[in-house]
Amino acid sequence: LPQDSNIEMTTVDGQKQIIIPYAKGGIMKYFIGAFITFWLFGWCTGFVIVGSQILAGEANAFLFFWFAGWSVGGLFAGTMLFKILRTSTPQSLILNKPNLWLDTGVAPFNLSLYNQKEIWKNLFLKRKKIEFTHREIETLKLRETDDSNRLTIDKGSERIEIASSATEIEREWLFEYLKSNYR
Known about the structure:
- It is a single chain.
- By secondary structure, the protein is of the alpha+beta class.
- It has helices at about 30-55, 60-85, 115-125, 135, 170-180, and strands at about 10, 15-20, 90-95, 100-105, 130, 140-145, 150-155, 160.
- The strands form two sheets. It has a five-stranded antiparallel beta sheet. The protein has a three-stranded antiparallel beta sheet with strand order 6-7-8.
- α1 packs antiparallel against α2.
- The protein is elongated and about 75 Å long.
- The model has no long low-confidence stretch (mean pLDDT about 90).
């Protein structure tokens, strides 16, 4: 392993396992989480007041419309709070020759305000467990980009990125390590 690397190597059921931790989410997520929590307290007040009017039969059409939109907003805020505050699970690879298993883990929510598309994509990410065959492992590539490199494997028509939270040197090491183990 590269010096000062966060990557860990263990053994699971006699198979080598490589654990690639995600970077920490940062302290800003707690401030945003606190803001959403306080907002949800106010949301609950409006939900209870209008909900009681609807149940008592005292609501007009506007309050029904408002209540529906308010409910969607509360569900969205609750989902955001969960995603922001949940703990991350590291990505892992199990070298189960001739196949390779990838557990994408759960990345911390990325609060980058510079890329709105990435925020929406990150909001709906799901943990995946993927098994690569020997033929798919042959598509393993270290791709140079303008600002770093990417380690990828093609599975059908999908290009899966591996070790996105690792440093460039760690990805280079992992590329060489996987290539040497799957020749």
